[in-house]
Amino acid sequence: MTTDGPAAAPRTLAEDLRARGDGALSALLRARPDLLSPVPNDLSQLATRAGTRASVVRALERLDRFTLQVAEALAIAPDGAPLETLLSLMGPEAADALPGALETLRTQALLWSGDDRLRLVRTARDILAPAAGSLSPTGLGPSVAEATSGMSPGRLQQILGTAGLPPTHDPVSAVDALTALFADRPRMTALLAAAPAEAVAVLGRLTWGPPYGEVADVGTPPAPVRWLLERGLLLPAGARNVVLPREVALHLRDGRAHRTPEPVPPAVEPRAHDPQAVDATAAGQAFTAIRTVEELVKQWETGGPQMLRAGGLSVRDLKRVATALDATEPGAAFWLELAYAAGLIAADGELDEAYAPTPEYDEWLLLPAELRWAALVTAWLTATRTSGVVGTRDAKGRALAALGPDLDRSLAPEIRRQVLDFLAALPAGASATPDALLARQRWERPLRGGTSMDGLRADLVRWTASEAELLGVTGRGALAAHGRALLSAVGDRAARAAALLRPLLPEPLDHVLLQADLTAVAPGPLQPHLAETLHVLADIESKGGATVYRFTPESVRRALDAGRTAAELHAFLAAHSRTPVPQPLSYLVDDVARRHGRLRVGAASAYLRCDDDALLSEVLADRRAAGLGLRRLAPTVLAAQADPATLLERLRAMGLAPAAESAEGDVLITRADARRTPPRSAPVPVTDGPPVPDGTLLTAAVKAIRAGDRASTAVRRESVPRPAAGGDRGLPRTAAAETLATMQAAVLTGESVWIGYVNADGAASQRVIGPLRVEGGFVTAYDHTADEVRTFALHRITGVSELADDLA
Predict the structure, then answer these.
(1) How far is CA 354 from the centre of its chain?
(2) pLDDT value for 728
(3) What SS3 string covers 185-199?
(4) Rounded mean pLDDT of the chain?
(5) For residues 247 and 163, is the Cβ–Cβ distance under 8 A?
(6) Which of 91, 153, 461, 747 has the most crowded CB, counting CB atoms within 10 A?
(7) SS3 assignment for 363-380
C-alpha cells in the first residue's frame, strides 16, 4: 500500500501531507479535529501541530486495540522499517488486518511514507516505546544500546569475550556486535542451548514483561543470573535490578511484539427475542418515562426544593423525590438529571435559590407524546452529566449531589453511542450481556480514559444498558426499531424515531371508570385536561398499567378551594365516567360542598365567622382549638390570636371545612399558582476536545491550508535583495517606485507576485498575490494566502518580487 504522490519518498511529514489529496486532508482533520483550532496557516504548520504530544495522545486514545498494537510494533521497530519487518513483529495471523490498520494510522498522520519505509511520528514513538527505565506497552525493555549507555568499555569487552565474540576497542562497535548476536537466530539458539535450566527459567519469567527483575545485589547475583549477566542476556539496571534487553526478548518471543495480536474484535454474542415484543416492551417503557418526567416536574410546579449552598439537592429531598416516583434513589437521580439535561427544570436564580420548572417545560407538554420522548432521549444521548456517580465522593471526599456540580464525565456520550452501536450491529430483536458489550468497548478504545478510568468505563457501560431500558430505547435488552432510528446518520433522526414510536404508544383516554368504593380507575393514559382536573379532585392511590384515584373529603375540598362548585364537579364526573356515578361519591361531593365555606376565616389578626352560631359555639368549646386564642365578638364572629393560614390549617385538622375570605367578604380561591424559572438553557455537555467539524468547515479549512501552503512554498527569483541582519527575515525590500512599477506590470500580465506586508498592528507577513487593479495608493489583488480578494495599501508593502513560476 502506498500513498499518492511523487516517486521520490517524502523526507518529512509535511512533504507527505503535501502529496495527499484534499479528501485525505479532510479525513485527517475529521479524525483529529483538535488540529483545526485554529486553522493552520499551511501544511508545515499542520504537520508540526500533528506531532505535538497532546494531539498525538488524543489520537492514540481513539485507536482500536489492533491498530494500537500495530503502532506499538512500529515504535519498537527501526525507524523507517519496511513492511516485512512489521509483518514479522505482528505475526502471520495479523497479515490480513494489517493494511487496514496502516491505513488508519496514515489517515490520522501518525504514520507516513510508503510500505518500503514506514515512519511512525517521533512523538508517538517516544510515547509507545519510552526510554530506558520506563515500561513499553509491549512489555519490552530498552534496547542493548540504551541499556549499556553508561557501561564501561572494559565491562563491554568482558561480555563480548564471554559471549564468544571477538574483542573491539570501540564501545559503539561492541554494542553493535552484541546487538547483531542477539538478532542472529542460529547463534542465539546455540548460546541459549548452553544455558543452565535455571537461567532459561529466569528468561522465561521476563520474556513477556515486565522486563525488569530484582536481585539482592547486582555485584553478587545468584548463579543463574550471573551466567546471564556475563553474556549480556541480562544487563544491570541499578544496584538491585537487571533488565532483559529488547533484542533478547524478541528472540525469545520468536520475533513477535505481542503475545496475542487481536486483529478481530471480540464477538458480541446475540440473544434472540421476538422483534415485535421488543418494540412493544420498549414503547411501553418509553411512555412510562414520559409520564415519570411529567409527574416529577409537576410536583415542583408550586415550588421545588431549595438548592444546597454547594449546589444540587439534599439527600432528604432526593429521598422525597424517590418516594413520590416510587423509585430507588439512584433511579430518582436519573430522572432528575434527565429532566435537567432536557432543560425542563432549573434553578430559579432567586436569593434563596430553589428548583422549579422552566418555560421550556410548558412547550414540552404541548408536544405529542412521541416528540416528548424524542426530546428526552436526544438530551440523554449527548449529556455528559452522569447520574450514576450521585452519592459517591469526589477527590476531596465530598459527596456528589443530584443536580449538583462535578457530575460531568466526558466519556459518557461516547460510551453510550458505542454501546447502542454494538446493539444495532446485532440482528433485529437481539440483546447482549453488559460483559460482552464492555469487552467490545475495551477493544475499540483500549487507551480511552486510561487505566485509572477503567472502573468508570465499566460503570458507564452498565449504566447505559439500564438507562436505555428505562427510556424505552431498548426492550428486553435489545435495541428497538425506534432506537435504531436514533442512530441513523441520515436525515432528522429524532423525527424518524418519533414516527416509528407513534403507532406503538397508547391513545389518551377521555374517560375513567368510577367505582362504589370512592375510587376511579383510569385504564390508560388520560387526556391532559382530564388528568389535570382529576389530579386536583382525587389522590393517586396506585400506578401501573391502570391508575387508581381515590376521592376523599380533603381532595374534594381541594377542588372546591380551587374554585369549582358542586354542580361543576357533578357534571365533570358524569361527563367523563363510562360507569354511572356511584351514589356514595355524589353524597361525598354534596356533603363536603354543604359544609365548605360555612366557616369564613379572615384577617383581623384573624377572625372566624359563621351564620350558624351553634357551630361557632361548638368550635369555641372544642379543646383542640384551645391554642388558637378564640373569643366571641358577636353571635356569628370569633376572633383568633393565630394568623389566617394557621387558623385554616387547625380547623381543617378538626374535620371542618372553612374557607378563606377577602376583606370584601368574598371567598378566596386558594389554588396555588404554577411557578416558572426565567428562561434557562439546558446544561452544555462538557467534552474533552473540539467537536467533529462538518463538511462545509472541512472544505473551507482545506482550501485555506492549501492556499497558505502555495504561498509559503512559492519559488521566488534569487535576484531579490535579502534584508540585513536584524531586519524582517524573508521579506523582500524594494523602493516605492519599483514596487509600484512591478505591481502595474503584474496587472497587465496577470502574473502573481510575492510581497512583504506590514498591517496596521505592525505585524509583518509575506504573501503571494495576483494584482487586479492599482489606483489611489491601494492594490486590489487576489490573496493566494487567504484565498480571497483583498485590498493592500501601497505604503505598507515592504517590497515585491516576481515568482519563478506562476501559481495559476
Answers:
(1) 28
(2) 46
(3) HHHHHHHHHCCCHHH
(4) 86
(5) no
(6) 461
(7) HHHCCCHHHHHHHHHHHH
